[in-house]
């Protein structure tokens, strides 16, 4: 028989992402609407092990939906990777009466949730990462805000690049994934996009392309480089030496993780937070919320963690074709 849930805990873990507050707010308010109690766990699994846990009311999440970051703070926790750390995490949940837990984070955080589920704490993962690198879902909290932030920044670099007739290499985040780079490549009309999934780096081809474009009269050359490839500064120095064109590297960095979430991130994060509460209330455990084929849905965590994600070949092809 499904375990009846009375108190839900919620935490954010791994890198923060704009929209996490909307998800926390939805967990708190949907749980209260269903007659459940909610406890906020601060600083991810670290806060769980240190018992940084507070009761949450509907008022505690007022005025948070438009704020970037996470009101529960976030952390990475090495101790939670050990069986002893996980056993202590389950024990702390029991001590505080937490019988259901919502973990907002990425694949690493879900691996932690999976361990807690095996130890008898009902857990649900909600995908929160700007990288979009979670295989079971077409949407992750924060990606939409991050690409809009990066897109606006790249437009600005492009203005000054054109004025000085320079080449610019702009490095965007994404860890091992190239989604931010690929989306911005199309949205910013970049001349070249370098992503780890298509790593066939050929600097001579890049240099020939820059020279050919300059001969055709192009005033700038924007290369969007995913952080999974990196080395933007040394790349810029070599390209400048080979082409004779002034070349600058800009690393956008953590600005991509901040800022007020877009409408899409607010709405989808709210839906996913509420969905996670519904799953717990139905007695479900070891699930991850996802968005697939236009619907919010859920997957077994074991299955979700074993899935592989690949970049859309067609999208990559279009990004190349539109630079002609
Ligand atoms: P993300 O959740 O964004 O992928 P991390 O990979 O940094 O971020 O993971 C966040 C936290 O999740 C880690 O600091 C650790 O506490 C926990 N975690 C990661 N992998 C595991 C694992 N295999 N088992 C238990 N906990 C894990
Ligand atoms: O996973 C989100 C992310 O911003 C990645 O794009 C990036 O590689 C990483 O986190 C940076 O982590 P940190 O904030 O620890 O520097």
Bound compounds, please? adenosine-5'-diphosphate, 6-O-phosphono-beta-D-fructofuranose
Find the count of extended strands (DSSP E, 2+ residues).
Answer: 11
Distance between the termini: 61 Å
Counted by DSSP, the helix tally is 11
Shape: elongated
The H/E string reads EHEHEHEHEHEHEHEHEHEEHH
Q: What class, by secondary structure content? A: alpha/beta
Largest sheet: 7 strands, mixed
> Beta fraction of the residues?
15-25%
**Rounded mean pLDDT score:** 96
Descriptive account of the structure:
By secondary structure, the chain is an alpha/beta fold. It has helices spanning 20-33, 44-49, 83-95, 107-118, 143-163, 179-187, 203-215, 232-243, 263-281, 301-306, 313-321; strands at 7-12, 37-41, 53-55, 100-105, 122-127, 167-172, 192-194, 221-226, 247-251, 287-292, 295-300. The strands form two sheets. Strands 3-2-1-4-5-10-11 form a seven-stranded mixed β-sheet, sandwiched between helices. A four-stranded parallel β-sheet has the order 7-8-6-9, with helices on both faces. The longest helix has 21 residues, at 143-163. The site of adenosine-5'-diphosphate has 17 residues, from helix 4. Adenosine-5'-diphosphate binds next to helix 4.
């Amino acid at each position: 028989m499904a375990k009846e849930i009375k108190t839900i805990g919620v935490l954010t873990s791994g890198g923060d992402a704009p929209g996490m507050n909307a998800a926390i707010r939805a967990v708190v308010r949907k749980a209260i609407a269903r007659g459940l109690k909610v406890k906020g766990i601060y600083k991810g699994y670290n806060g769980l092990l240190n018992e940084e846990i507070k009761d949450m009311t509907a008022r505690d999440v007022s005025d948070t939906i438009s704020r970037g970051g996470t009101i529960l703070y976030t952390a990475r926790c090495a101790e939670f990777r050990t069986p002893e750390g996980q056993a202590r995490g389950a024990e702390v949940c029991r001590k505080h009466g937490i019988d259901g837990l919502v973990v907002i984070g990425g694949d690493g955080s879900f691996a932690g949730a999976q361990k807690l589920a095996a130890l008898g704490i009902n857990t649900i993962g909600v995908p929160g990462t700007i990288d979009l690198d979670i295989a079971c879902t077409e949407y992750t909290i924060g990606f939409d805000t991050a690409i809009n932030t990066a897109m606006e920044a790249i437009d600005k670099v492009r203005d000054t690049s054109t004025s000085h007739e320079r080449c610019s290499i702009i490095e965007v985040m994404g860890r091992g994934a190239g989604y931010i780079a690929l989306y911005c490549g199309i949205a910013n009309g970049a001349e070249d996009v370098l992503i780890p999934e298509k790593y066939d780096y050929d600097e001579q081809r890049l240099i020939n392309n820059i020279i050919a474009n300059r001969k055709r009269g192009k005033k700038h050359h924007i290369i969007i480089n995913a952080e999974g490839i990196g080395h933007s500064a040394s790349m810029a120095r070599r390209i400048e030496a080979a082409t004779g064109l002034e070349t600058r590297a800009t690393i956008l960095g953590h600005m991509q993780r901040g800022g007020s979430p877009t409408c899409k991130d607010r709405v989808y994060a709210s839906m996913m937070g509420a969905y996670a509460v519904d799953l717990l209330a139905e007695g479900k455990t070891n699930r991850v919320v996802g968005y697939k084929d236009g619907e919010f849905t859920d997957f077994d965590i074991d299955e979700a963690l074993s899935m592989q994600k690949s970049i859309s070949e067609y999208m990559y092809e279009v990004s190349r074709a539109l630079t002609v």
